[in-house]
Write a structure and sequence with these properties.
- One of its GO terms (biological process) is methylation.
- This is Methyltransferase.
- One of its GO terms (molecular function) is methyltransferase activity.
- This protein is an alpha+beta fold.
- Helices cover 20% and strands 41% of the residues.
- A five-stranded antiparallel beta sheet has the order 4-3-2-1-5, with helices on one face.
- It is globular.
- Residues 1-6 have low confidence and may be disordered.
Length: 71
């Protein structure tokens, strides 16, 4: 049986100039990146900073750094 610690996730939404760019979920030891409108996760990363960089790298070329807000 999973405990509350195992099931819980934290969520950050990335906002760019055009609205929501994607999201990052923290589950266990991973940060999972999903781009807005995507059907699948982009990938799992070991730190939040690496996940933020991956999300930004998959935004439109020349996009400004997004604002990340925890939800």
């Amino acid at each position: 049986m999973m405990n509350a610690q195992t099931r819980s996730t934290a969520l950050w939404v990335a906002y760019g100039a055009g609205g929501v760019a994607g999201m990052i979920r923290h589950r266990g030891d991973e940060y999972i990146v999903t781009m807005a409108g995507a059907d699948a996760e982009l990938g799992a990363y070991p730190t939040m900073e690496i996940a933020k960089n991956a999300l930004h790298a998959h935004m439109a070329p020349g996009a400004d750094w997004p604002t990340f807000r925890e939800h």
